[in-house]
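explain this.
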Amino acid sequence: MDRNNIDSSMIRSIGYDANSSTLEIEFNSGAIWQYFDFPESSWCEFNTSDSKGKFFLREIKKQYSESQVG
C-alpha cells in the first residue's frame, strides 16, 4: 500500500485503501500496522487532522481489528 510521509512524533507515514477499507500506519519505531473496516470518512478526518498521534490514540487505537504487517 502506498503511504504518505507525515510530520509526527509518533507516526512516520499513513495510507488508505478505499477498496478494502484498510488503513495502514507506519510508526516511527518502524512497526507497520493495518486497521480493517476503517471508514473512508474517518480516513478523511485522520488525514486532515492537526495531530495524527492524538487522533490515532483517541479514534483508532483499540477501535478496529488490526494486524501488524511489518
Remarks:
- The first strand starts at residue 4 and ends at 5.
